[in-house]
Amino acid sequence: MTMTTHRLLSFLLALSAAPLFCNAFATLPPLVSATTISNNARITRPSSLSASSTTTTDDDNDEEAEISSLLRPSYKIEPIPLRIGHGFDIHKMVPLSEAGQPIVIGGVVIDHEDQKWTDKDGKYTDEPNSIYKTQLGVIAHSDGDVIYHSLVDAIFGALTLPDIGQVFQDTDPRWKGCDSSKFMEHAYKVMTYYGYQIGNIDVTLILERPKVAGFKPAMKENIVRLLGTTEGRVNIKARTHEKLDSMGELRSLSCHVVITLEKVGGDVLG
User: Fold this and answer.
1) How many Å apart are CA 71 and CA 59, to the nearest integer?
2) Quick check: 257 and 87 in contact, CB under 8 A?
3) Distance between CA 140 and CA 176 in Å, rounded?
4) For residues 204 and 154, what is the distance between their CA atoms, to the nearest angstrom?
5) Which of 28, 71, 24 is nearest to 52 (CA)?
6) Are 213 and 54 in contact (CB under 8 A)?
7) Rounded-to-integer distance, Cα 53 and Cα 69, Å
8) Is 69 helix (H, G, I), strand (E, B) or coil?
9) What whole-number distance in Å separates Cα of residue 64 and Cα of residue 103?
10) Terminal CA-to-CA distance of the chain, rounded, Å?
11) Rounded CA separation 220/231 (Å)
């Protein structure tokens, strides 16, 4: 079997093991009643699905109310001109056959050659801590996109809202295998609801391998599109972990994000 054929079969295996898309956001509280503000940006106010034609169960309504209340705290989100947020995420990397889904970073599937993964427990080799050459995938409840998860957390943090793990819990079956761009879309709506836009974004991606330099332009394009900003406001850096700890052994990858949010005019809703 050629290397190309092996990579293709591994990728198809991962796709067959994970959902192709996530419909769970059909049950999230929509953001409606748009209001035009001074610079023609639009702010939308969250509401429940009670006015929607969508049929929901009592359990669905309870879940919607919970998420809505988390994103609309009892205190006022003060309309200060500039807010700063930080986000962090880390996920375990394992052989693709075990993960059941590929490495997805910034909305991009990271295609790669077989990597020298450290088999810490000796599951795939004769002895623990041996090197095992394999295609890699990510263990996660959703698609495990560390950049998107960090960005969502940074936006929520800048707005003094609960973290992504509270809003989109990893025990909730609705988010199983979910495309994390859906989390980004919702975070964008929450950000505009409170009257803010992206000031700038600085991403630091940390992983030893596979190399991602060639994928960074597509990652940046996805972030710009999903968060309604421009290329001059988004930066993506990637670095190794100098072969130290789990990241240096290709057993995990992580990401830090720092963002600023700018007030775009008018008073904060809620």
Assistant:
1) 19
2) yes
3) 9
4) 13
5) 28
6) no
7) 22
8) helix
9) 30
10) 60
11) 7
The tokens describing 104, both together, are 């997805």
Is 54 within 8 Å of 252 (Cβ atoms)?
A: no
- Which residue's structure tokens are 């949010």? 261
**Omega prior to 210 cis, within 30 of 0:** yes
- Pairwise CA distance, residues 111 & 92, whole Å: 17
Cα 266 to Cα 102: distance, rounded to the nearest angstrom: 43
Q: CA of 102: how far to CAs of 10, 93, 99, 110, in Å?
A: 9, 10, 7, 7
Tens-binned pLDDT, residue by residue, of the chain (270 aa)? 444 444 444 444 444 444 444 544 444 444 433 333 233 333 333 332 222 233 445 554 554 555 567 778 888 889 999 999 999 999 988 998 888 888 999 999 998 898 888 999 999 998 999 999 998 999 877 788 999 999 999 999 999 998 776 677 666 666 666 778 888 988 898 899 899 999 999 999 999 989 999 999 999 999 999 999 999 999 999 998 988 888 888 888 999 999 999 999 755 444
Cβ atoms within 10 A of the Cβ of 176, count? 15
| Contact between residue 117 and residue 132 where contact means Cβ atoms under 8 Å apart | yes
Tokens of 180: 């994390």
